[in-house]
Amino acid sequence: MIPDKAKSGFCIGVSCPGCGGALELQADFFVVVCKHCGSVLRIELPEIPPAYLVQSKINKTEVRFQFDRYLRANKHPLTRANMEITGFYYPYWKIDAIVLKLRNKIEERITAYQDPSESYQTETSIKQKKTDIALTPFQTTIAAGGEFDEIPFSIGMRADYIKLLPFAQDNIQDGFDSYPAIKSWGDIQTALTKNVNIVGKIISADFGINKTELFHPVGSIVYFPYYKIETTIKVKPQRFIIDALTGRVVHDADASQSAFATPSTANSAMQFGQLQVGLHRCPQCGDDLPPQQSFAYVCRNCNQFIALEKNPHLRNEVLSADLSNSPDTFLFPFWSLRLSPETARRLRVIFGGIYNSEYLVIPGFKIPNFEAMFRLSKRISTAAPKLELVPVENFDSRFAPVTLGLYEALALTEVIIYREKVGKQIDSAEKREIFESLDITLFYAPFHPENYFYVDSVLGAITFEKNLVD
Ligand SMILES: [Zn+2]
Ligand SMILES: [Zn+2]
Questions:
Q1: Residue 370: predicted pLDDT
Q2: How many CB atoms lie under 10 A from the CB of residue 89?
Q3: What does pLDDT average to over the chain?
Q4: 263 C-beta neighbours (distance < 10 Å), count
Q5: Number of C-beta neighbours around residue 60 at 10 A
Q6: pLDDT (mean) for 300-326
C-alpha cells in the first residue's frame, strides 16, 4: 500500500454491510458511498464512547531489525540472551473538545515623531491593555490503562496517518494481548478540566487573570500497539518498549528493578459503544437519501423532514425565509432555539445592546474559525425575530448541507454565552450556563455573495466572510 501523504491524523476502518468491502472513514464523515458496490451508507456513533484498535504495522522480524539498530546507535552490545518479543495493546482516551483561551496582555506601541523644527525624532511609548479571546479546537490523548512508567502517557498529535478499527476480537492481531482500560470517561473529564485550567494559569497574565476552559469534550478509546522486548545484556535483564507503528524504542529500562504487569485476563468492566453502519435511507418510505454529508434532509420521494439526531424539542419541519423574490441566493442552515421569557430576559442582560430577541441561533454549518461563528451567531440571533419563515417542501441545489449537527449546536450555546460573558468581564463568568429550549427549529436564510462576503438577502444586515465556508 502506498501511504497517502495528504492524509494525517486518525481515520476509521469499517466494512460495508452491503458487500462486506473495506471502507475508510475520515473524521466527521458519517455518510459514505461504498467504493466497491455503490451503496450509500450512514455511520451512527454510539451514545457511549466507542473503542477502537490500531493494528501493528511491523512484524517481529522487523522489530528485531529496528531493535538491533537501536542497540548499535546507543552503544549497547549486540550480544544478548533469552530474547523474548511480545506484542500488546495499551488503551488511551482520545479527546476532541473546544478550548476557550483568554489572555490578558499589555502591549507597548512606540510612535516616532519628527519635529519639523528639530533635527531629531521624538519617540513616545504607549502601553495598552489588550484581552485576546479565542475559541479553538483541541485534541489530546491520555493513558487509560494502569499506571506504567514505561509506557508513554500520551500518543500525542502524530503526523502519520493512523487507521482505527473497531475494537473487536476479529481485529486483534495474533500474539497480542490487551491491557484493560481502567480510567473511566468521568475520571478523564475531571482530570482534563483540571489540567486545562492549570495550563491557563501557568501563563501569567500581565493584568487580571488568564483563563483556559474546555468545552464539549467527546471521547473514544484507542488501543495502541507496542512490542515489549525482554532480554539479558551483559548479564543484566533489560526491558524495551517499542512503538509498533514506527519501530521506535520508547523505553529502555533495567528489568531487575520492577516487573512488567501482565494484562489481566478478566474483561474490563468498562462498556464501550459500537459504531453502526447502515444504509442511508428515508425511515418513512425507504428511498435512498442524497449521498451528501448532512445532519438533515428532506426526502425527495415523500417530502419527509429527516433529522439524523433525535431531539424531542425539534420541530418536524424545516423552514426558510420566503424565496420567491430571491432566485440568486445560497441558503445557509441555522438551528434556532426559542427561549422562555425568563431565559430570553437573562440573555438580553448578557448580550445587551441591540439584542432584543427571544431566539438563540447557531449556524448549522461548520465554520472552522470559532470567533467568526460566535459573531455570526450573535448577529443572526438578534435578527431572528425579523425573519418571516415558511415551510420548505423540498431541498434544491441552493440549500447548503447541515454540517454542524444539533447536538454540537446545543453544546455551542454554552460556549457562546460563556464567550460573551468573558468578553464583557461579567462577574458571573465563572458560572457556565446552558440555555435550554423547548422549541428548536432548523431554518434556512438566504445569502448572496458580495465581494469577499456573504450578505443576507432579507435584511441586508448580516454578513460573514466568504472564505469561512469555502
Ligand atoms: Zn459495499
Ligand atoms: Zn421518504
A1: 77
A2: 23
A3: 84
A4: 16
A5: 14
A6: 88
Cell numbers 473529564: residue: 189
Longest dimension (CA), the chain: 89
Question: Residue 33 Cα, ligand 1 centroid: separation in angstroms?
Answer: 8
Asked whether the CA dihedral 404, 407, 413, 419 is positive or negative, the reply is: negative
Check if the beta carbon of residue 135 is closer than 8 Å to that of residue 170.
Answer: no
Tell me the per-residue pLDDT of 385-424, one tens digit each, with 9 for 90 and over.
Answer: 888 899 998 888 889 999 999 988 988 888 888 888 877 7
Orientation of helix 370-383 relative to helix 341-351, angle to 10°:
120
| Euclidean distance between CA atoms 295 and 233, whole angstroms | 58
* Interval between CA 82 and ligand 1 midpoint (Å): 48
Q: What is the pLDDT of residue 117?
A: 74
Q: Which ligand is nearest to the CA of 36?
A: 1
**With 70 as the cut, is the pLDDT of residue 175 above it?**
yes
Output the CA 283–ligand 2 centroid distance in Å: 7
Q: What is the 3-state secondary structure (H, E, C) of 275-300?
A: CEEEECECCCCCCECCCCCCCEEECC
Distance (angstroms) between ligand 2 centre and the Cα of 167 equals 34
Best CA proximity match to 224, nearest among 89, 99, 24, 390: 89
**pLDDT (average), residues 187-195:** 83
